[in-house]
Each structure stands twice: as structure tokens, then as C-alpha cells.
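Protein 1 of 2
SEQ + STRUCT:
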Amino acid sequence: MSDGRANMGGSPVPVLQQIRELLSIGRDPRDSREEFLDVYAFGLGEDAHTETMNALASHKAGEQHLFFLRDTEDLQEVFHRMIDESSTLGLCGVSLEFARAGDRERNPWEVTVTVTRPGRGQERCQGSLVSPHFVLSAAHCFTSTEQPGWLGVDIGPRDHRGVSGLFLHPEFSPGSRRHRGVPEFYDFAVALLELERPVGPSPGQR
């Protein structure tokens, strides 16, 4: 990360050369091994020197290795553009944190669970997607007599799922310690909701 001229830690060129030597890159003209090294260069500020930064970055067809940023706040969006999401979408918790990301992109695993009990109104709880088919929520949001048809899951503002099954932790029992002077006991307060239709692994995939 540099403006291409001032480097408080010294010039990166000798270090890059050491890395290339270590990986035997560029030694053999018959096999340059360039595919084994990716060097990303980040030019910061309006005075970033294009020629110097371009000389540092890797040059590969169809890939971007040189980025010019206004300030460090742009880094999060740049990292998102660099990551191959096809290999990371299965990692729970991957989210987009840059300034222009929407709520669903910032919190891709968060959902809202609505319980509509006939004649008794609605209640809402939060939950998290733990697989394409299941949502993890709090058991105290539900009762043992809850019907799956009374439940709905909202994933973002426009994506709604029905629920085909509700599974409360078998040891969840808020009143189980009253005989010991504990009015409400909330250990094991977890529940799984099985969705009628699976959810895709990205904010834009349904």
C-alpha cells in the first residue's frame, strides 16, 4: 500500500524480488511460473504514481491486481472485488461491509421469524441461517404447541419462506428450576426451523 513514491518501510522492490527467488519465478524462460504469484498493489490518495504502482502489481488476463483508492475506507469494497466468492460462500459469516453494501449484504445470515397465532396476534424473533434448509433461533420465542403453518421467515425485505418443521431443544424448560428458587431457567433455549424451500448462499441468490 503506497502512493508509489514515499515508502516508510523502504522500497518493496527488493522484497518482491526475494519472493520471486524463493518461488523460482522468472528463472526459467521455458516456464516462468508467474501463475504462482499474485501481487496486489494499492495506490492511496490523489497523488498515487501510476507507473510505479503498475510496475509492482501482477499482470494476468482477466484479473485486476492494481487498485487506486481515495482512502483506506475503500479497502473493504476492493477486497470484496478481489475475493472469488464461489470458494467462500460456504463459509458462514462472510458479509459485505463496505459503505454501499445493503442491509442484506451486511447481514446475509440474519432473518426475521414471525409467529402468527390464530386469535392471539403476531410475535417476531430474530434468527440466523445455519444451512440452506435451517434457521437457528431462540426456543423462548415459541411454545411446544406451535404449528409450522403459523411460522414464517423473512430473509431481507422481499424474500419470504414458509416453515415445514419446528424443533425445540428437548431440555429447554423455563420452569424446570422453580423448585430450587429459580423462577425462569433459559439454558438450552435454542430452536431449529426447517424451511419449506432452501435458501441460496449469496445475498442475490434465491
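Protein 2 of 2
SEQ + STRUCT:
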Amino acid sequence: MLLLIADGNCFHNCKALLPHGRTFPFAIFYSDRGDVQNGSAEIFFRKVKFWKEDGQEDAPPVFNVDGVNYFHVKVVGLLFVATTRVNMSPSFALELLQRIARVIKDYLGVLNEDTLRKNFVLVYELLDEVIDFGYVQTTSTELLKSYVFNEPIVVDAPRLPPLEPAAIFSARAKRMPGIAVTKSVIATEPGGRNREEIFVDVIEKISITFSSSGYILTSEIDGTIQMKSYLTGNPEIRLALNDDLAIGRGQGPIYGYRSSSGSGAVILDDCNFHESVRLDSFDVDRTLSLIPPDGEFPVMNYRMTQEFRPPFRINVLIEEAGPLKAEVILKIYAEFGSSVTANTVKVQMPLPKYTTRVNFELNPGAVGETTDFKEANKKLEWSLKKIVGASEHTLRAKLTFSQESHGNITKESGPVSMTFTIPMYNVSRLQVKYLQISKKSRVSEPYRWVRYVTQANSYVARI
């Protein structure tokens, strides 16, 4: 799916495309100034679908075609895209697209082709209020409620597939994903009443680079605490974090804090808070106070470079098996506990340019594992549906070359990259100790859902 936004100075078109095997997908078209041709959506779709430039299979987030700049981001399988003919900040365009996707999801409850088809009038109205003659007015769900009056047509959520691989949880454990909540913040449930609920997600994206011997060269965590509230009356929320949380090494009320436990402290390099957050007691007991606005929003963003235990270890071995043959052995070790499961794990490894054929061999009895050799860019791909903690997985790949190597095969291969999602697991040890609601509903006790998710931002092992 694609959402395209633009104006004469910044943005000028807005469309939504959903590639589901059709020649040209479903589209919503919105034009504020109209100085980009109507066929720009089809140009973008064909360019992205058949991208082969620079030896890459995926199009970059920003590219130019015939004088038109295209910016795009991917959100839950949908492409949100902006076009412009003038020079502008790519970061501004990409951030705006992310915010528009969030606003639409707040109103519709879930993003997919069905919800867009049924609510295209509401989507048009939202875009018209967010952007006026190409200039951004607001991306606040709370403020937009004063100007947007169409009611969303809610799609039956139980029949929808989960929006994220991490959205699959055990019903027995009563864990509910916050960012995959399929409820609109505008629509009410049958009977005119909303269920009193509040969702909190601690999402951490980790970046790690391993040396050829397996040592960690660089490591970093980009984290965020996301909140989505369905509480009536806008009650005040108190969110308590670790007592041993330390932020930075400078001076000031919220910096330089050290726990009496010393080395056990969770030390963040820096952080920032949503405008609704009050830090009156944060220095004393690490508690955040806020009145949550409508929609999903980040309570706190943080960055951490303190050493942490990586969730996976990657081991790579390349052996020559003749003048035109070699063997690659890839091993993955899950360093987390057996009660945790990683979902949709994908491993990629570039091979020498003269590789012509690859034969794969998996562990006996391997389930949910697939392999592929992308001949166009000479890349090995290994996908695992899930990995249970404290387990080990091995892949053997026998390579056939078109010519004899006159150099070091190891130097012409790699590095190995890895992507994954691990629900109910975080590497920083940042915890939500409790979630307190100042004014509770008289009818029922509000439901509180807290989830932890770890994702790979950049997980690379050198060979």
C-alpha cells in the first residue's frame, strides 16, 4: 500500500496503493496543488516494485524520477509516500509520513486495504486537515477531533491478521500488544460505552556489530515507551520506572543519578519526554506523571550505549572445498531464556560475485525454516519462523563458483546481517514498575496492558 503526499513547496499529491498481486493496486488520490502529474503514483509503484539500481533489490527511502522527488516509509506493510519537485528536507518528509500513518491508524483502529476502502472519505478529510495548500497544520489526533466529524467504519478486528509478527501472544497469559491494538480512538463500542483500557509498550531497537572472532565492536539501544489510552475522563497517569535508572553523566535534577547497587544501574545516555509528561517527582522516585492525549504517542524516547547481553550470537565459518567450491556454515545461538521466543528471524549474507549455485542443508527435523539464493545480488537468505530461547540453529550452504578464486573467499563474503522481533523481552532492563490511574471508573477496574518488544535495527557480524 502507498500513501502519497505533496504540495508545491513541500508536498503536492497524496495516494494510497496496496500491492496485492494486481498490476496496479488500489489507490486513494489527494492533490493539494497539482503540480505533479496524476500518473506519479503508477510511476512510483513500478519503480519500487522493479527496483534494480545500485545492485539493490529494495528502493531507497528517497529517490528522483524525471525531476520528481519521492519519499516513502513502510508502516505495517503499507507504503506511505510523498512527492515534490523542489528541494526539501528528507527527514521532515519521512517524519511527517510516519505521523500521518499514526493519525490514520488512531482513527481507523487498524491499517489495511479493507479499512481504507471503507473509510476513504474519512482519510480524505484527515489529509485535508493535516495539510492545507501544501503546508502542515497539525498531526495531533486530539486537535483533529475538533475539525474531523466523520465516524469511522470499524472493521471486525478478530478476523484481521495481526499487524506485526510480535502480535501473536498466548491468550492464556493475557498479554495484549499495544501497537497492534485494533481499536479506533474515535469510535465507540456497541451500546455507546468504551472499555476502560490503557496500553503501554516498551519497544527497543538494538544495533550491534560483531567482529570476526565474535566480540562486540559496537552496541546501541534506541528505545521508546509508547502509550495508547482508552480511559474516559482523561485521568492523570503515574508511570514508575526502575529505581536504579540513571540518565547521562552531567549535573542537574534528572542527571547523574546513581543507584546504591552501583554496577546494577540502568544507565541511559540521553532521553526526551512527551510534552504532556511532568517530571516533578522523577528525580526522587523515577515516576512520570501525565494526562494522556488521544491516540498513540511516545511517552519517552531514550538511547543507551551501556554494555548489554546480545540476544543472539552468530558464528560463521567458510571453508574451501576445491577450486570451484566452498562451504559456508552459519550458526545462531539464542542467548535468552527458553520461556522467550523470537519471531520472523531472517539472516542474510552476501556471497562472492562469481557464485553460480548454492545447495542448502538444514538441521534434521528443522521446522519453519526456509532458504534462498538471490542470484541477482548474490545473497544468501535464511528465514526462521521462530527461535526458542537457549537453542542453536545451523545452516550449511555449499557454493559453486563460475571461476576459480584468486583471492580470499572470506574477504569477498559477508558481512552477515540479521533481523528479528522478540516479544516480552528487553535487553536494557528498563522496566515499568507500576501504572497508576488517579481516577478510576466507577463501573469497572481499568485494564492495564504492558508489553516489551526487542527488534533488530542493525545486527551485523563480520566474517
